[in-house]
Amino acid sequence: ERGETDAARAADAELGELNRRYDESVAGGKWRGFLRLEPADADWKSMRLAPWAPPPAPRAPVLAPAGQIILPAADSRLGAGATLVSGLGRTGGAVALAAGGMLAFDLPAPGGAVELRLDLLPTHPTRGDAHQLELRLNGEPPVALSLPIDDGGPAWTQGVLAGYRSLAHRLNLPATGPRRLQVRATSGGVVLDRLVLTPLTP
Across-strand partners of 83? Predict the structure, then answer.
């Protein structure tokens, strides 16, 4: 819950209703207790300090930095090995990338230095213990990025709770001309939800 209190409460109520229907309606309640909002065996303690509950009072909205631009992966040009998964991710259209899969964005940001953040779903690579990607801006030599999984660690835990894990990289965008960014997965299992571009002060 990041300041969108009404949406958080509505989502919590929807989960509760789905859980109730599963317990009471499916097969006459045969599977009661198989699905729970919080694990019955207290495994939730490794993910949070207490079961989640909406805050007692609304929080102030979290404001995005000035000039920040969000680009959903669904709005990119999909290349070979890229599959749009409707309904997945915060944007509702994450893109799954096989090893070698690629997608491309035309960046609308003004020229200059920006922080590029890639929001990935918390998935496991098909091989190895880290997601591997390459960035290529306007055909320049690729830049390799890596996101270690560290399943069970603090970063993984927060990524699961938030619904995404992030990789950040500084880009210097040209003042004029095209700003085409290619994102290529060099390991399988990458699922990209969105790019976030934030201008950096000189």
Answer: 96
Question: For 150-165, what is each residue's pLDDT tens digit?
Answer: 888 888 888 888 889 9
Place of tokens 């070698």: 100
Which residues lie across from 67 on neighbouring strands? Answer: none
Q: Which residues pair with 198 in a beta bridge?
A: 115
Q: Provide the token pair at 133.
A: 């990607």
* Sequence-separated (6 or more) residues with CB below 8 Å from residue 13: none
What DSSP line would sit under the chain, residue for residue? --S-HHHHHHHHHHHHHHHHHHHHTGGGGTTTTSS-SS-TTSGGGGT-SS-----SSPPPPPPPPTT-EEEEGGGSEE-TTEEEEET-TTTTEEEEE-TT-EEEEE--SPSEEEEEEEEE-S---SSSSEEEEEEEETTPPPEEEEEE--TTSHHHHHHHHHT-EEEEEEEEE-SSS--EEEEEESSTTEEEEEEEEEEPP-
pTM: 0.74
* pLDDT tens-digit series, residues 109-147: 678 899 999 999 999 999 899 999 999 999 999 999 999
Over residues 95-114, mean pLDDT: 91
- Tell how strand 130-137 and strand 143-148 pair up: antiparallel
Q: Which amino acid is at 125?
A: P
Taken in order 172, 173, 175, 178, the sign of the CA dihedral is positive
In angstroms, rounded to a whole number, what is the distance separating the alpha carbons of residues 154 and 148? 12
